Input
Amino acid sequence: MSQFHPSNSIDWINQIDWLRDEARALDFGDIRVSDTDLSQAGPKLREWLAAGCHGDMNYMSQHAHLREDPQQLHPGTIRVLTVRMDYLPNTPEMRSALDWRQNEMQKWEGGDQAIVAMYARGRDYHKVLRHRLQTLAEKIQNKIGSYGYRVFVDSGPVMEVELAHKSGLGWRGKHTLLLNREAGSMFFLGEIYVDIPFPVDPPITSHCGECTACMDVCPTKAITAPYQLDSRRCISYLTIEHRGSIPVELRPLMANRIYGCDDCQLICPWNKFAQLSAVPDFLPRHGLDQSSLLDLWSWGEKDFLSRHEGSPIRRIGYKAWRRNLAVGMGNALRSTSVLEQDKDAIEQALQKVLPFESDMVKEHILWALEQKSI
Output
């Protein structure tokens, strides 16, 4: 990628105004500029890794030095453009809701309804954001000339929350996610590493105060202290990143959450201000916002692959999908909110496929069947 050769005649304030207009035209909720100094964040990352809180995510430790130094990851980088893209689906139900969070929290009580994290109900955000960030990067090039850049969307060793915080895009909540006063936390982050000396935006202070709602609501107590997350206990990690057997003691706590978990976001007061997305790609597909556990259990592997084409869920594979569903169905069997006739249907569905499943899935089915007698 070519290097940028600045001109003394460039009006950087006007360039930033133009940049924000272009970002909004691409449906980004905001764009900010950070420097590349992550010296304060590096030691905290190394401490977290040393404690093993990253679980099986070995890639976190393998490239830690690149996370800490954007200039090593992409030589020549002197600024990072950080963006947010809201993903709350713009459906009639969401538009008419007095508080969309209450609608989602009601699903906690529906023991046989499958809960998929809201970000994963539509098209894979990696593809959506990457395409638009690339478009934005090319617009910059057309505007000011050739320069060096690299686009990232949760796909490289990037400390994206820290960079977003430094740029003033938001502050880190006690659940470790980025929070924004106008948009809560229901958004994706993306970055463009550039060698352009854009003016840096100032960070903003935290507005969490004494609130601990996210810590208190976490089913598995994965938020072990303010700003400290033990991935090994997090339902999002267990259902997405973890490939083996789910610890038995954590299975009942997962309830009907089969892919990711939004609890710490749903309870957050700032998400009253979450913005509906302007991007149709994030609308729910294949009924993932309202399917029962039995509906999804009926999918064969071909169904899984075809219906999750272009979805982030496809990445976990069919075995992990079945494992997660088996845990959810086991919890439905012990739930007081599930009708007996529905429990019978769940039990029959599990027993029917037991001889044909992989050893890992079979183990979780056997556990699930045991739950009816509890």
